[in-house]
């Protein structure tokens, strides 16, 4: 679903004509005699008797009539997709015209509508997405009512394994949560529902990205915050494609969980190598199993990160196979396999030379970017600056020689 601001739905005709249109749609498939009996109470309520205010000047009577209509809606109806969409758009128009966005009545009507739409047959899923999207976009942009509407969309998409159809992005969610007038608890609950939706849809990497957002929304000192922080650490360690653990340390709840056994393991993956991991694993029996972490996969990760760190220290240089083998605690014959693996996951870029038994490092990722990494970057920038200065000096010298030769030719001529 495309992210848009709220939109207005314009309906033609008088109030009576529009209500008649809604009623006709609801009763369209009933026998003639039943239709007449069904329509009669609406016609009588819309009549203005002597001494009574006109419908245009009587909002209470209009709300009563709208309630009569909405109470008769049991499903999406049996019209075409265009007819169903038109019916609900007209219904939304009256809903937001007759009630203020923060009134209890509109919340009751909205809850009932969302239940009806969400529970409609699965074969009408495309229509449900469309009318729920229209409702979301018709709801005032800052209204708390947008939350239950999107939750309904999320529920339908999850039930049909069609999350991708929503086109959801973290940028959209950040914008909505900044706009909606909802509590911090509601914001956290909404984020948790997105995390669960992507987990159930077997999209763990996207789920993890929202999980970081969810942890950030929680109070770091709360039990929920600490539990979610430890779960986020475990998820990052568990996912085979996650090698950047630095974002975790930017979360207050993760820092607050420093007494957790997994926090000390996280520190190893940020700064240490295989010996430290083996020492930690030996002194924390059962912790990996408790958090569903696979030792072999963690060993692979720590080796790849160690190789990336080694490469970062030797950018632009040749790394001997023997140095790599020693750092990774592997046989020299396995070095090329590990280098290919680290290049494949995007942590390092370089060229292998079997003749010289070296890896020439072109680029490599840093696990964290702190004081030591800034110093290394400064040294490389100074070296590049000196190299560029030397090149400019050579170019300037060559230009001077060329200019002198031209002058000499002119004088000789």
UniProtKB/TrEMBL annotation:
<dbReference type="InterPro" id="IPR000717">
    <property type="entry name" value="PCI_dom"/>
</dbReference>
<dbReference type="InterPro" id="IPR027528">
    <property type="entry name" value="eIF3m"/>
</dbReference>
<dbReference type="InterPro" id="IPR045237">
    <property type="entry name" value="COPS7/eIF3m"/>
</dbReference>
<dbReference type="GO" id="GO:0003743">
    <property type="term" value="F:translation initiation factor activity"/>
</dbReference>
<keyword id="KW-0648">Protein biosynthesis</keyword>
<dbReference type="GO" id="GO:0001732">
    <property type="term" value="P:formation of cytoplasmic translation initiation complex"/>
</dbReference>
<dbReference type="Pfam" id="PF01399">
    <property type="entry name" value="PCI"/>
</dbReference>
<dbReference type="GO" id="GO:0016282">
    <property type="term" value="C:eukaryotic 43S preinitiation complex"/>
</dbReference>
<dbReference type="InterPro" id="IPR040750">
    <property type="entry name" value="eIF3m_C_helix"/>
</dbReference>
<dbReference type="GO" id="GO:0033290">
    <property type="term" value="C:eukaryotic 48S preinitiation complex"/>
</dbReference>
<keyword id="KW-0396">Initiation factor</keyword>
<comment type="subunit">
    <text>Component of the eukaryotic translation initiation factor 3 (eIF-3) complex.</text>
</comment>
<comment type="function">
    <text>Component of the eukaryotic translation initiation factor 3 (eIF-3) complex, which is involved in protein synthesis of a specialized repertoire of mRNAs and, together with other initiation factors, stimulates binding of mRNA and methionyl-tRNAi to the 40S ribosome. The eIF-3 complex specifically targets and initiates translation of a subset of mRNAs involved in cell proliferation.</text>
</comment>
<dbReference type="GO" id="GO:0071541">
    <property type="term" value="C:eukaryotic translation initiation factor 3 complex, eIF3m"/>
</dbReference>
<comment type="similarity">
    <text>Belongs to the eIF-3 subunit M family.</text>
</comment>
<comment type="similarity">
    <text>Belongs to the CSN7/EIF3M family. CSN7 subfamily.</text>
</comment>
<protein>
    <recommendedName>
        <fullName>Eukaryotic translation initiation factor 3 subunit M</fullName>
    </recommendedName>
</protein>
<dbReference type="Pfam" id="PF18005">
    <property type="entry name" value="eIF3m_C_helix"/>
</dbReference>
<feature type="domain" description="PCI">
    <location>
        <begin position="206"/>
        <end position="366"/>
    </location>
</feature>
<keyword id="KW-0963">Cytoplasm</keyword>
């Amino acid at each position: 679903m495309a992210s848009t601001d709220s939109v207005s739905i314009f309906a033609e005709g008088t109030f009576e004509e529009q209500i008649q249109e809604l009623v006709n749609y609801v009763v369209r498939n009933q026998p003639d005699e039943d239709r007449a009996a069904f329509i009669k109470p609406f016609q009588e309520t819309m009549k203005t008797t002597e001494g009574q205010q006109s419908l245009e000047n009587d909002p209470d009577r209009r709300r009563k009539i709208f309630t009569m209509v909405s109470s008769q809606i049991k499903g999406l109806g049996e019209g075409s997709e265009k007819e169903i969409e038109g019916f609900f758009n007209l219904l939304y128009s009256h809903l937001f015209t007759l009630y203020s966005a923060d009134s209890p009545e509109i919340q009751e009507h909205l809850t009932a509508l969302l239940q009806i739409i969400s529970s409609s047959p699965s074969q009408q899923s495309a229509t449900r997405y469309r009318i729920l999207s229209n409702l979301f976009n018709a709801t005032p942009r800052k209204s708390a009512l947008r939350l239950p509407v999107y939750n309904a969309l999320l529920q339908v998409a999850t039930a049909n394994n069609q999350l991708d159809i929503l086109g959801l992005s973290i940028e959209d969610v950040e914008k909505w949560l900044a706009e909606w007038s909802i509590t911090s608890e509601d914001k956290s609950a909404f984020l948790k529902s997105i995390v669960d939706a992507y987990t159930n849809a077997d999209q763990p990497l996207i789920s993890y990205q929202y999980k970081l957002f969810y942890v950030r929304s929680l109070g770091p000192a709360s039990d929920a915050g600490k539990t979610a922080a430890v779960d986020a650490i475990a998820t990052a360690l568990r996912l085979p494609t996650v090698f950047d653990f630095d974002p975790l340390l930017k979360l207050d709840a993760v820092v607050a969980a420093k007494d957790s056994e997994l926090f000390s393991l996280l520190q190893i993956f940020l700064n240490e190598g295989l010996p430290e991991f083996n020492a930690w694993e030996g002194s924390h029996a059962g912790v990996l199993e408790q958090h569903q972490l696979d030792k072999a996969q963690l060993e692979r990760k720590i080796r790849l990160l160690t190789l990336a760190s080694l490469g970062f220290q030797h950018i632009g240089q040749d790394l001997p196979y023997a140095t790599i083998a020693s750092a990774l605690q592997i046989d020299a014959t396995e070095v090329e396999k590990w280098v290919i693996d680290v290049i494949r996951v995007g942590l390092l870029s370089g060229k292998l030379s079997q003749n010289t038994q070296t890896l020439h490092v072109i680029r490599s990722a840093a696990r964290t970017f702190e004081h030591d990494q800034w110093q290394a970057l400064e040294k490389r920038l100074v070296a590049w600056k000196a190299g560029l200065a030397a090149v400019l000096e050579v170019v300037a010298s060559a230009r001077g020689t060329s200019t002198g030769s031209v002058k000499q030719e002119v004088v000789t001529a």
